Amino acid sequence: MEQNKLLMLFVRNPELGKVKTRLAASVGPEKALEVYLHLLQHTKLVTQNLSVDKLVYYTNEVNQDDLWPNDKYEKRIQPAGDLGEKMQAAFAAAFLEGYTSVVIVGSDCLQLTQEIIADAFKKLETHEVVVGPALDGGYYLLGMNCLYPQLFQNKRWSTEHVFQETLQDLQHLHIHYALLPRLSDVDHLEDLDEDLQETFGF
């Protein structure tokens, strides 16, 4: 393990009616939960073999007996506040604990690969910040070598403006940043390819 590197995963507890609510509006809460469980499995698959420390942040409770192996993932409850406040507090805690490269991902991106996450840590060797933009205007990954609170403030979270507003902050603050490939998050039925739609019976 490279002790100075930390991968944080922000996930929702997989509860009926509380995950993928935009998707649930078209396919129902049961199918939305199925899709979310598939997303969690994919996220585990692409993160479990990375040689960095890993920390899963849950929305409301820690389950020690779930799909995240306790010998590979530390588990905590997300800090309080909106998404920006949660992420800022998580990054702040990581740097206080001595990590020097910290990356956060969600659990909504089926196009995310182990190689892309490894590349994010690699880019942090020569850049201060790395961002993985999402096609919906947000981002699926954010990494940094020290805390930049401005990146978490005054953002219209869960809108198509998040990535652009983050980019403007990076440029305004003259932060040396790198970008990863633009990927698709799964929020709506059309975000699933035809094979997956067939798998889930859509």
Automatic annotation (TrEMBL):
Transmembrane segments: none annotated. It comes from the Bacteria. GO terms for molecular function: transferase activity. This is Glycosyltransferase. Keywords: Transferase.
